[in-house]
């Protein structure tokens, strides 16, 4: 399948900071690619370079066959870009907002209304067409934002943390919409701080300090830590954590959700496990359960960050 | 210290015809970590604002640290910390100056307390950097520092980790755990279900009403009346739509690379798989699993 997003050796510096440093990636129609990485890793800058809001120092961006440098108009027509802070007009109704964005996108008088109705039905806001945007709930505003960037039927969607600060019900609804767009052949590039969302992507790219450090399917990324995660339930946390950190085969220990999650430096954990359990009990800790746990995207995220900071 | 850190009885707030908080009743004991969940706009922040005495309740009463939240708000505030969703920092001031400002507001004169607080949140090395130049994870920790510089006995955190990356989130919760272990009572709202799993008790709000406030293990038993499933099938979207058409299935959603379904308790795996295969789906498999807090949350939000 043709790549709808094709990025080659993209770089952009701000002063001495290499915000985006030699990034190459591609996304085909029907595919969703997740960009994850810490704050300031370059996710937003990458998206802004892709839609031509920012100019690259080096490299090439092609969207649906159009070059961002040479054919910016055609390129931009094919993109729907939802930035982190998307401005809607609070004093305009839902429909008036869509009318405005349709105008910006050059939709004609006859085109915009049927398309606006279609897209409102799609995002589930058809009953609220006459409500003022400022009177919408957070979840509805987010859907209106998506509707606004979809108004001109873009083939490529760039979504910059679209679900930040949004509750699980609304996030679920939003992702179901995304999957429906994918089925229609849209290519999606999304950044998210939620690792459960990252695991829904076809492919993930891990960005840190402007560089794409690791890329692959969520399954392949998780496999980096195969047989290297142990989970301990028990207490007191302070004792369990200290024993774990003192063990030469424990790379990292994080208390989370009432459990202690340990990352081991090597796979094959039976011997390390029994050693840890003994030491924890010896130091006065209580161990309710200790055992291997399947690695998550979040485990890998943290490993990559700690590795690169070390 | 009073027996109850927070005592809320029939607390209600109406804005015109809209009831933001609707007869909410609960107690918080010293040293508890309470998670307060709910969809956007369900009344979580409004509840906190009433407990802080920033908003007057329309009905009902709240006692915080043994003091009346409406009439004695002035006496409550020096003893509580509040970190709001929009970290209230002065961008043009340095980290240290921000902390100085809040110390002044709370009447903390001891400079060593400021140093100690910056150490606690791990920001001593950037004390002279402007708050506006800090990455989000550090701004978040600085906001926490300003909320605890006066050593409150009760700490309100309103979506403290929203939009923060996983590593920063873990570092933040390490700090929270540490404070809870020293006896600080913590009341935290969050959209992250894994964070809520840590809390001793979790309250779930919906449309202004508190549906339940219990330990998570109890919530999963008492507030959840179905069977949870991990379902694998292709294509995933057709499978999602297909699940929703099965009569025994009450709810279906995306979960990582597969689907999650909630069904009546009497549904068997073979029945579920057969139903999906009959719809022409491929690679079908269904496994019953223990409900997560997110399942409970979604079930209560219907």
Separation of the first and last Cα atoms of chain A: 40 Å
Portion of residues within helices of chain A: 25-40%
Main sheet summary of chain A = 6 strands, mixed
Shape of chain A: elongated
Q: What fraction strand of chain A? A: 25-35%
> Which consecutive residue ranges of chain A, at least 5 long each, have pLDDT under 50?
none
Continuous helix count of chain A: 11
Keywords summarizing the entry:
A: Rossmann fold, Alpha-Beta Plaits, four-stranded antiparallel beta sheet, B: 302 residues, alpha/beta, Rossmann fold, six-stranded mixed beta sheet, 14 strands
Written account of the structure:
The complex is a heterodimer of chains A (310) and B (302). With 310 residues, chain A is of the alpha/beta class. Chain A contains 11 helices and 14 strands. Chain A folds into 2 domains: 3-221, P-loop containing nucleotide triphosphate hydrolases (Rossmann fold), CATH 3.40.50.300; 227-294, Alpha-Beta Plaits (2-Layer Sandwich). Helices cover 37% and strands 29% of the residues of chain A. In chain A, strand 4 (58-63) and strand 5 form a beta hairpin. Chain B has 302 residues and is α/β, with parallel strands linked by helices. Chain B is 34% helix and 29% strand. In chain B, strands 6-7-8-3-9-10 form a 6-stranded mixed beta sheet, sandwiched between helices. A 4-stranded antiparallel beta sheet of chain B has the order 2-1-4-5. A 4-stranded antiparallel beta sheet of chain B has the order 12-13-11-14, covered by helices on one side. In chain B, helix 6 links the parallel strand 7 and strand 8 (185-189). In chain B, helix 3 (95-105) packs parallel to helix 5 (136-148). Chain B is globular and about 70 Å long. The model of chain B has no long low-confidence stretch (mean pLDDT 91). The interface between A and B is large, with 42 and 41 residues.
């Amino acid at each position: 399948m043709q790549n709808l997003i094709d990025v080659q050796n993209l770089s952009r510096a701000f002063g001495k900071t290499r915000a985006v440093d030699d990034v190459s990636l591609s996304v085909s129609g029907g595919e969703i690619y997740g960009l994850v990485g810490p704050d300031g890793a370059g996710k937003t800058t990458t998206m802004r370079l892709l839609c031509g809001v920012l100019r690259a120092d080096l490299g090439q961006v092609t969207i649906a066959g159009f070059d961002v440098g040479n054919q910016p108009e055609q390129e931009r027509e094919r993109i729907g870009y939802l930035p982190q802070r998307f401005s809607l007009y609070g004093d305009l109704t839902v429909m008036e907002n869509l009318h405005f964005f349709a105008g910006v996108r050059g939709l004609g008088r006859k085109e915009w209304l049927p398309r606006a109705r279609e897209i409102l039905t799609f995002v589930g806001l058809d009953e609220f067409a006459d409500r003022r945007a400022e009177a919408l709930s957070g979840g509805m505003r987010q859907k209106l934002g998506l509707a606004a960037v979809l108004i001109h039927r873009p083939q490529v969607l760039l979504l910059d943390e679209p679900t930040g600060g949004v509750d699980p019900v609304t996030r679920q609804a939003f992702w179901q919409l995304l999957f429906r767009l994918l089925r229609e052949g849209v290519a999606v590039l999304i950044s998210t701080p939620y690792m459960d969302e990252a695991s829904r992507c076809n492919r993930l790219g891990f960005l840190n300090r402007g560089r794409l450090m690791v890329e692959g399917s969520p399954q392949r990324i998780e496999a980096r830590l195969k047989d290297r995660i142990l989970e301990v339930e028990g207490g007191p946390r302070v004792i369990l954590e200290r024993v774990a950190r003192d063990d030469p085969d424990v790379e990292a220990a994080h208390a989370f959700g009432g459990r202690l999650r340990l990352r081991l430096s090597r796979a094959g954990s039976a011997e390390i496990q029994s050693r840890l359990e003994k030491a924890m009990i010896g130091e006065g800790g209580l161990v309710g359960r200790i055992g291997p746990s399947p690695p998550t995207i979040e485990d890998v995220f943290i490993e990559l960050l700690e590795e690169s900071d070390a | 210290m009073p027996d109850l850190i927070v005592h809320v009885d029939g607390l209600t707030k109406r804005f015109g015809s809209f009831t933001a908080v609707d007869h909410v009743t609960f107690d918080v004991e010293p040293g508890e970590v309470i998670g307060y969940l709910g969809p956007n706009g369900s009344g979580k922040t409004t509840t906190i604002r009433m407990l802080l005495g920033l908003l007057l309740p329309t009905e009902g009463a709240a006692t915080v640290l043994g003091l009346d939240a409406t009439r004695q708000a002035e006496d409550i505030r020096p003893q509580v910390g509040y970190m709001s969703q929009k970290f209230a920092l002065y961008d043009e001031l340095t980290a240290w100056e921000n902390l100085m400002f809040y110390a002044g507001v709370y009447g903390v004169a001891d400079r060593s307390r400021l140093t100690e607080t910056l150490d606690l949140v791990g920001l001593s090395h950037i004390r002279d950097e402007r708050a506006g130049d800090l990455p989000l994870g550090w701004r978040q920790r600085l906001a926490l520092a300003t909320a605890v510089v006066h050593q409150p006995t009760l700490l309100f955190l309103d979506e403290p980790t929203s939009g923060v990356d996983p590593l920063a989130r873990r570092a933040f919760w390490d700090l929270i755990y540490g404070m809870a272990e020293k006896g600080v009572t913590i009341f935290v709202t969050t959209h992250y279900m894994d964070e809520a799993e840590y809390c001793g008790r979790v309250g779930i709000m919906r449309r202004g009403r508190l549906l339940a406030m219990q330990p998570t293990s109890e919530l999963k038993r008492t507030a959840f009346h179905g069977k949870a499933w991990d379902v694998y099938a292709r294509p995933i979207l057709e499978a999602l739509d297909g699940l929703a058409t099965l009569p025994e299935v009450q709810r279906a959603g995306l979960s990582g690379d597969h689907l999650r379904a909630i069904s009546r308790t009497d549904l068997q795996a073979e029945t579920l798989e057969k139903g999906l295969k009959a719809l022409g789906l491929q690679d079908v498999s269904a496994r019953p699993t223990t409900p997560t807090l997110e399942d409970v949350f979604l079930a209560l939000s219907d």
